[in-house]
Design goal:
13 strands; globular; alpha/beta; binds 5-hydroxymethyl-3,4-dihydroxypiperidine; 3-stranded mixed beta sheet; 8-stranded parallel barrel; 16 helices
Length: 454
């Protein structure tokens, strides 16, 4: 059996994850300001089918029902993000109390249901006013983020114990600023490097701000990490894989855990140099309580005439995102990060799969592939724990089908199906599988505690 209960500690946290723009809707309610994603969605041709997050899953209004679903699922924890433009409609300055009130209500609802809130401060919805003033390529945005972190932690820190500063800074920096496929849609490598630096810097400042406001807080950052495997064992392919690992993984892991950028990425170091001031890397490497890891797939890399190139594995199963299903990749990345960076703790803050789900005649969603995916990846987590990785929790992405960024509503990641025309929720078979897994963990026999045995 892949999911041996004994490989998961009894205090392992089982959760589900979401993000503000992807589920909340209520884009114009209670004083929320415009975010870069509102602007991006309103720009023709940027998001598939012209979809937007205006309504999304309407979680803003339906959260009590969704928390009831979470309770039925048996979640220990729920990961959500806070929409910065709800709290500061103009990015900084006057606080919008009604925006904070929403998260107050959500946190109380979760705690009332016995579910631990894990709050992410930034899951990509930068206030448009800050983008207009220079955005993340400008250092002032990092300062604004630290102010925002302090205000939110002061309001919620008496009840929220787990905080994540940023979600996937690589994605926000590169896909949003070099590739132009995400908001704010810039296409400049130098901007992406500056953004990454300011995200790292603001992360460090925010950790301090959260701890000032809430001394018992446990704070971390979430990175998208994947293993890069050389296509062959030639030195060229090995070097190509190491290079890609540097660009995507080490460019964030090294500053956070070692206080330096990886020296082998020469062009990147030239670009970042002008942005790095004395003390920045000390700030970015503030000791953390945990590292969040989002993982979905792996990459195979070969040396090419124009540099490293990612090659596919046509024999493997792929999800609706075109991502290879490769649970060993999660195992390998966990073991490698634990060995090379020794984080105090790791949470898998996202893992899951999009498949083209349909409701059949009985109204149910028989998402056999997602269930198999989750089972195999959770099995990989168990093996990584047995191999010494300090993994303390796992959050499935996602609780609900939701707005999948540039793909709009065309990709379904939820374990709960959302019928977008009616906004009705239909738990999929994977929901019931996850519910039963969580229930079986709770009832699994535990080794006698040393105190009881003494
Ligand atoms: O939907 C996203 C999420 O916002 C960040 N991590 C990856 C998910 C799937 O693409």
């Amino acid at each position: 059996m892949t999911n041996d209960p004994s490989s998961f500690p009894s205090d392992f946290v089982w959760g589900a994850a979401t993000a503000s723009y992807q589920i909340e809707g209520a884009a114009h309610e209670d004083g929320r300001g415009e975010s870069v994603w509102d602007r991006f969605c309103a720009t023709p041709g940027k998001v598939r089918g012209g979809d937007t997050g205006e309504v999304a899953c309407d979680f803003y209004h339906r959260y009590p029902d969704d928390v009831r679903l979470m309770k039925e699922l048996g979640l220990d924890a729920f990961r959500f993000s806070i929409a910065w433009p709800r709290v500061f409609p103009e990015g900084r300055g006057t606080v919008n109390e009604k925006g904070l009130d929403f998260y107050d209500r959500l946190v109380d609802e979760l705690l009332g249901a016995g579910i631990e809130p894990f709050a992410t401060l930034f899951h990509w919805d930068t206030p448009q006013a800050l983008e207009d003033a220079g955005g993340w390529p400008a250092r002032e945005t990092a300062e604004a983020f630290a102010e925002y972190a302090e205000v939110v932690a002061a309001r919620l820190g008496d009840r929220v114990r787990h905080w994540i500063t940023h979600n996937e800074p690589w994605v926000y920096a590169w896909i949003g600023h070099a590739w132009g496929l995400h908001a704010p849609g810039r296409t400049n490598e130098a901007d992406a490097v500056a953004v990454a630096h300011h995200l790292l810097l603001s992360h460090g400042w925010a950790v301090e701000a959260i701890r000032r406001a809430s001394p018992d807080a446990r704070v971390g950052i979430t990175l998208n990490l994947a293993q890069f495997y050389p296509a062959t064992d030639t030195p060229e392919d090995e070097a190509a894989a190491y290079h890609r690992d540097g660009q995507d993984n080490r460019w964030f892991l090294d500053p956070i855990f070692r206080g330096s950028y990886p020296a082998d990425l020469l062009e990147r170091n030239e670009l970042v140099g002008p942005h790095v001031r004395d003390g920045d890397l000390e700030a970015a490497s503030v000791p953390l309580d945990f590292l969040g890891i989002n993982n979905y797939s792996r990459f195979i890399v070969a040396a090419g005439a124009d540099g490293p190139k990612t090659v596919g594995n046509p024999d493997a199963q792929h999800t609706d995102m075109g991502w290879e299903v490769y649970p060993d990749g999660l195992h390998d990345v966990l073991v490698r990060v634990a060995r090379d960076y020794e984080p105090a703790a790791i949470y898998i803050t996202e893992n899951g799969a999009a498949f083209p789900d349909v409701r059949v005649h009985d109204g149910a969603v028989h998402d056999v592939e997602r269930t198999a995916y989750l089972e195999s990846y959770i099995g990989a987590v168990g093996r990584a724990i047995a191999g010494g990785a300090p993994v303390k929790g796992y959050f499935v992405w996602s609780l609900l089908d939701n707005f999948e960024w540039a793909f709009g509503y065309s990709k379904r990641f939820g374990i709960v199906y959302v019928d977008f025309p009616t906004l009705g929720r239909v738990p999929k078979d994977s929901f019931y599988w996850y519910r039963d897994l969580l229930a079986s963990r709770r009832s699994a026999p535990r080794p006698p505690s040393p105190i009881a045995a003494a």
